Amino acid sequence: MIRKRLITVTWLTALALLLTPAISSPQAGPVGAPGFVEITPEVTQAVGRGLAYLAQAQAEDGSFGADRYGRHVGITALVSLAFMADGHMPDRGPHGELLNQSLSFVLSSSSDAGLLAADTSHGPMYGHGFATLFLGEVYGMTGNRQVRSALRRAVQLIVASQNHEGGWRYQPIPADADISVTICQIMALRSARNAGLSVPKATIERAVEYVRRCQNPDDGGFRYMTGAGGSAFPRSAAGLASLYYAGIYEGDEIDSALAYLEQFQPGAGRAQQGGHYYYGQYYAVQAMFLAGDEHWRSWYPAIRAELLARQQADGSWQGNHGSTYSTAMALLVLQMPNRLLPIFER
Question: Could you give the CA distance from residue 282 to residue 293 in angstroms, rounded to a whole number?
Fold first, then answer.
């Protein structure tokens, strides 16, 4: 059964609109650049409509994803992060109760072994990675002890299931690996480490080395696995973002990855097609935010315009993986300039 809610207009997004020209940040992005307004009135309105759409889609148990995947911890986590990117927190803000319910669902989905999964899930490590990221962000901002316990077990499972190449794949066992699942785990581990949990340095180093081995030297993009394979926009966006998050900000590998990615800037080059549009844009906007300067000033207005044009009359965004997932990802992209989620900082 789906819970219906009266929706309040997004609040910290409106505040960000008023403050954007005056904010300065040492983290990344050309904050305060003359003539560059990030959060426009159109974005504020779109975010409010998008959050309203998501709020009415929450199930009674606090989960999200029923439109495509059933009770899914990963989609629940991404939706929750979309609300947190607007300044809402469990017990705080107009959508505090919604986040209480989604957090309770994710915590209830934690097994003794640490796996975060609900219902039948193909490739549970995707959902586990996003759910661990969510718990890391919540714990880092609240200090909730129950969250810390589940987060600690989730991190231990990630560490234990890293394969010999340094990566991860669909199942929580140290077998094969691919770049997409690996990057989900890198982000989860980074959030946990930022929140104060112990993460083995060797685990991170091996994971970053795996990502580096997936980069194609001929075009700077990233292939799916370390063996032969072509580059593609979604995984290349994720690969570049993960290098930035690992503290690699300069070098030939960064320059070539940026050059590859910028071919796909919305409205200015090769169209990014296929079923992973929102996944690719989610990581691409992070990469360009961390690249800063002209990369951010060029990319964000372009993806902002494209996403505003794609929003449906009911406030949602549509995609191959369901409207809940697509809407959450679109909102995370649009709200990058809010700079409220610690994971998105250098």
Answer: 19
Instruction: Supply the pTM of this predicted model.
Output: 0.89
Question: Is 224 within 8 Å of 213 (Cβ atoms)?
Answer: no
Residue 167 vs residues 35, 56, 162, 291: alpha-carbon distances, Å? 42, 37, 6, 25
Alpha helices, DSSP H only, in the chain?
12-19, 41-55, 73-84, 96-108, 124-142, 145-160, 179-194, 201-213, 233-245, 252-262, 277-291, 293-310, 323-334
Q: Is residue 32 over pLDDT 60?
A: no
- pLDDT (0 to 100) of residue 228: 82
Among the listed residues 74, 68, 64, 127, the one whose alpha carbon sits nearest the alpha carbon of residue 98: 64
Q: If you average pLDDT over residues 196-221, what whole number do you get?
A: 97
Helix (H, G, I), strand (E, B) or coil at 220: coil
How many angstroms separate the CA atoms of 72 and 65, rounded? 6
Beta partners for residue 96, in sequence order:
none
Report the distance separating Cα 249 and Cα 247, nearest Å: 6
